[in-house]
Protein: F-box/LRR-repeat protein 15-like leucin rich repeat domain-containing protein
Amino acid sequence: GTTAPMVRSPRGVPQEGLDVSLVLAGAQFPSDLLLHLAETIGNPLELLVSKAHLSKAFCRAACDAQGLLKHAELRKWKQTVDDAVVAAVVSKCTQLTRLDLAWCSRITDDAVVAVASQCPQLSSLNLLGCSKITDAAVVALTAGCPQLTSLNLHGCDKITDAAVVALASGCTQLTYLDLCWCSKVTDAAVVAVASSCAQLSSLNLLRCGQITDAAVEAVASGCPQLAFLNLAGCDNITDAAVVALAVGCRQLASLGLYGCDNISDAAMVAAKVECKQLKSLCFSTVAEKRAARQLARDRKLIRIIQAPGVLVDVGDLDAQYNL
Structure:
């Protein structure tokens, strides 16, 4: 019989040499082998798209292999990805479990509705910076993607309580939720998440200015596995919220309170005493020098960001919020 072409490992081969080294032109590669090669090289979708022109056989194999893809990251093409592109991708890649659409600012609810209708196994969706997204997109996800565990809505400022309440009801396995800059979100949404999503470990509420102690207290009582919480810019938060976290969230490793000017130094020290896993603490102008220095002496704290003029430790605010 005909000997199949030898396929050498692409490791270390320059991108421009892949055509030759993989002997792709005219080759009849099975879809599973093509997928393996794609994942070994890096971005599967990029390989499939860039090599499909080599032959009709490869093009057919590439199309077949798309249906096997589990992960897709489209942020590399953020300037050109629109609703039609997303719809085309998910119509072929129906087994996706993770989809990254960060900064694809041209997409609208239609793209997310397509994802929800075609990808029932989806567990992670990143919509960071997709500012055209509204409640309709999130509601579609709750109906079509019940296995969702991670959702990034950072900067989706049209999202309201209605979407988050629906999300909490339909996607109870959530472990990661980013609502940063979703300024329309209120206590009602956070309480719904806390009541339904007991496995939540990361919650970003940066600049959700309508949040009060009631929301944080609900999180503290309903989400015992919480490890990361960012409340920066939530200026209605008081000591009561921090005390509740200290009691209910003993796994807390990172707490952002920058701009929460109603928090006292005593509350922050109490949080550190009770939350043994705390490694990162961000606070601002209310901290007294004595309290800040007391926290700084704890070598377990990797990063502390504190009041101006109080030298404690060097922290990177951007890194603190970049999750």
User: Anything to note?
Assistant: Strands lie at 71-73, 98-100, 124-126, 150-152, 176-178, 202-204, 228-230, 254-256, 280-282, 303-305.
